[in-house]
Amino acid sequence: MALVEGLMSMNYGVVKPSFWTGATGRALRQDVDAQVVALYLMTSPHANIIGVFRCPIDYIKIETGRTIEGASKGLTKLCELGFCSFDPETETVWVREMARFQIGDALKGGDKRIKHVIRFFDEIENPRFKRAFFEKYGAAYQLPEPPKAPDDESPIEGASKPIQSPIEATVTVTVTSTDTVTPHPSDEDASPIEGASKALRNIKPISKRKASPQKSSVPADLRLQGLRDYFTEQADRLGVTDGANEFDRFIDHHRAKGSTFADWEAASRTWLRNSVKFAQTSPALRSGSHPQQFQERVTNGFATILMDRKRQEQQHADGPIIDVTPNQPGGSSGTDRRKELTGR
Question: Which of 78, 130, 238, 299 has the highest local Cβ count within 10 Å?
Fold first, then answer.
């Protein structure tokens, strides 16, 4: 029983060596992002044995150390290869062959793992994923049949349609189909070819427009931990000491102000650059004090000047007096002149 529970909770994931030499492994060569994401999905702490589980892009970014762009591109590549499918609405991923590798090709009646497989199967939110999973594994794992996929589409076709990638999920696309073009009244008598050509001219081109980034308050949970890791990494790069405490000051400041940003990583970089500039200011001026030598000069400067002046006068008085007055004809000698000046 303990073994069964361990398998159900994904304490470990099976990755065969043939992964690297098989069709998928060969297709992923030279694409490090896709390789890392593929291995992560097969061994993720959020995964289950059937390979259908919730896996937001942020989980991949934080737990693999890839950038958000790298995680998104890696997942998109895997979806294109058919390794997995991703539903951005429910943030659910389905690794298509994972159940076969983790459970086996089939389960016999009475196998205790069947009830666990059914439990995970019932938790699948995406109806297309659920129907397609049943078509692939229903008979092998004795699963209950789910309702038909929406829009009367077959489960295989519905699941095989390319799932919107994480990057494309941020783009709004407006398409005017040729099936909805209404011909102009003057085209009623036109030939089929002329009518079709005019209808094609009325088709509006596809437009793609990125949605404006939405501002958010201080992140929470996994997003905050990811921001903390990014902040400390940038702090080390810029030479900011004690990046952990600096991050706490950054968060406390903006949480108290109720700040909102569209890009918190950019805001953290701005904070760190300002911190570096602030650190370049004299530490004494930042603390509101002055160096001791400067304080003494400010306090005793005038007294020092007077003492220097007095010392110079004393040296001059104690030294010998030299007569520099030139001798003049008929005048007094140098000795007489000194007596006149000093009285000696």
Answer: 78
The b-or-e profile of 298-325 (16+ CB within 10 A means b, else e) is eeeeeeeeeeeeeeeeeeeeeeeeeeee
Which residue, 29, 30, 55, 57, is CA-closest to 42? 55
Cβ neighbours of residue 268 under 8 Å, at least 6 residues apart? 227, 230, 231, 234, 247, 250
CA-CA distance, 183 to 301, in Å (whole number)? 96
Closest Cα to residue 48, out of 109, 105, 95, 3?
95
Output 272-280 pairs: Cβ under 8 A, ≥24 positions apart: 272/231, 272/234, 272/235, 272/238, 272/240, 272/246, 273/238, 275/240, 275/246, 276/238, 276/239, 276/240, 279/240
The whole-model pTM stands at 0.43
Per residue of the chain (344 residues), what is the pLDDT tens digit?
Answer: 334 444 445 666 788 888 888 888 899 998 999 999 999 999 999 999 999 999 999 999 999 999 999 999 999 999 999 999 999 999 999 999 999 988 989 998 889 899 999 999 999 999 999 999 999 999 999 999 998 766 544 433 334 444 444 434 433 333 444 444 444 444 445 455 455 555 555 555 555 565 667 888 887 765 788 888 888 888 888 888 888 899 999 889 988 888 898 888 888 899 888 888 887 765 554 454 444 544 444 445 555 666 777 777 777 666 655 555 555 555 555 556 555 555 55
List, in order of start, the domains of the chain with CATH numbers: 2-160 (1.10.10.10), 175-210 (no CATH), 215-307 (no CATH)
Q: What are phi and psi of 92, to 5 degrees?
A: -105, 140
* Residue matched to tokens 């060596």: 17
- Written as one string, the DSSP assignment of 119-149 is HHHHT---HHHHHHHHHHHHHHHTPPPPPPP
Output the CA–CA distances (angstroms, integers) from residue 54 to 68, 120, 147, in the order listed: 17, 11, 21
